Amino acid sequence: MDTAYQRLLAHVRTITDLGKASAVLRWDRETNMPKAGDPARIEQLTTLRRLIHERSTSTAYGELIEAAAAQVDSTGDALAADLICVLRYDYARARRLPEDLVVRTAETSARARTVWEAARADADFARFQPWLEQLVEIQREMAERYGYAGEPYDALLEGYEQGATAAGVRAVFDAVKRETVPLVQAIAERADAIDDAVVRQAFPIEAQTAFARHIAAVVGYDFDRGHLGTVVHPFATSFSRDDVRITTRWYPDDLRPALFGTLHESGHAIYEQNTGPELARTPLASGTSAGIHESQSRMIENLVGRSWPFWRAHFPDLRRHFPAQLAGCDAEQFYRAVNKVQPSLIRVEADELTYNLHIILRFELEQALLGGTLAVADLPGAWNDGLRALLGVVPPNDREGVLQDVHWSGPSFGYFPTYALGNLYAAQLMEAARAQSPDVDADLDAGRTGALVAWLREHVHRHGRRYPPAVLIERATGAPLGHAAFVRYARAKFGRLYDLPI
Ligand code: ZN
How far is the CA of 236 from the centre of ligand 1 (A)? Predict the structure, then answer.
């Protein structure tokens, strides 16, 4: 193919490389950087963001996309056509935000994050409040700039879950809420059926690290193209398909956060490591949406990593790492302990069943803040009332309540729902994988994930961003996103665990 497309590719590779350089700086900020480096790092990230914004929104770039598109049309190259489609979409969206708004957002968000950290440490919402007020204002301005057909929230949701609407998500979430709340209540009446004391003991960090590395490799994370680091707020990040990093935090007195956190981030990383090599250095070489990305982490963390066959197979290994702590425990006891359902305050520590309710609360509050029906000053009260209604618990302070998550300092309105969407996509993909590939069940039953990851690579991973989420899920599972697969999964699993009459 001749010059216009080649010139476009060169330009796109520059933008992608700048984005990856900025990801390295962010990864370093979270893992290794001394706190004193923060002001300079914020300036460096702001500079990169400005360079990326200039190159992604220039008139010349738009002309280059169209010149290349005219060539690609005549060649019938499907990959090039898909790339052009994504570039046109990203270009149009990026052009809607003026540069001063992008810079103001980056600066406000970086400072708000520092304030949020201090406010959270002191459980002092009042300190964060004026910053959150600014951020809500910024989000409103962004929604108006982006534009929307239905409601302002759609414009922000679009940034994480292309094609999704607040109304569509609300309908699915309402069904999840309707099905989950009674299930959680029925389980609460049998709270004593599961004892999880065995996972809340002193577990040496060194042995935790060794087992986390072992189990991440077992589920399919490739350490030759990866790295496990320590952070306060775990994440996965990719600098190329051959360098995909995961991070974990270690608790000396609880085995679960590091173990399941590592499995979670491994799921994200396996997705990035398996994107098609032909997509490299373009925006196609990444997960297609935050929700689909989260489906891959939830798949590994929960549908695989909290399943009975998985622990039947791997508990002996775990016990070898912690002979004293797990001496009196067997695989089934451990499986039950890591699946204890308990209404709780902190989203990232929530069990598989109550997790979606934490998300639904945030989804509803974000919409109310954006729509102006809830003032920022009233947010802590609304948070506490909402949590009481959904889970029957109330935080004793704002650190364990409204200040617990970093997202709003982003500001990332529209991001939270993708976590619960991930749980729903994961259940639907698992049903499809089992139905379509005869090896998946036999493999999972033996504690292996090879056949499942192979199915996911074929139907999800290798496509990167070539298909938007709604198209991908329909192609892979034969149906649009719904709540039914998750509800079937949850009822079967927790019905059995808690001996419920369902
Ligand atoms: Zn995740």
Answer: 8
CA of 294 to the centre of ligand 1 (A): 5
**CB–CB of 104/138 below 8 Å?**
yes
**Residues 22 and 82: beta-carbon distance below 8 Å:** no
Residue 272 a catalytic site member: no
pLDDT tens digit sequence for 26-85: 999 999 999 999 999 989 998 998 899 899 999 999 999 999 999 998 888 999 999 999
- Cβ pair 293, 375 in contact under 8 A: no
Report CA-CA distances (Å) from 222 to 249, 266, 268, 273.
Answer: 20, 9, 12, 8
CA of 9 to the centre of ligand 1 (A): 30
Query: CA 235, 402, 194 angle in degrees (round to 5)?
Result: 70
- The answer to whether the peptide bond before residue 411 is cis (omega within 30 degrees of 0) is yes
The one-letter amino acid code at 154 reads D
Rounded to 5°, the CA angle 190-192-197 comes to 145
Q: Where are the alpha helices (DSSP H) in 403-448?
A: 416-436, 438-445
Q: What b/e readout covers 37-57, taking b as 16+ CB neighbours within 10 angstroms?
A: eeeebbeebbebbebbbebbb
Question: Active site residue: 161, 265, 364, 366, which one?
Answer: 265
> Rounded to two decimals, what is the model's pTM?
0.95
| Cα(265) to centroid(ligand 1), Å | 6
Residues 119-141 have pLDDT tens digits of: 999 999 999 999 999 999 999 99
Distance CA 474, CA 421 (A): 14
* 483: DSSP letter: S
Centre a 10 Å sphere on the Cβ of residue 91 and count the other Cβ atoms it contains.
17
SS3 content of the chain, % helix, strand, coil (to 5): 70, 5, 30
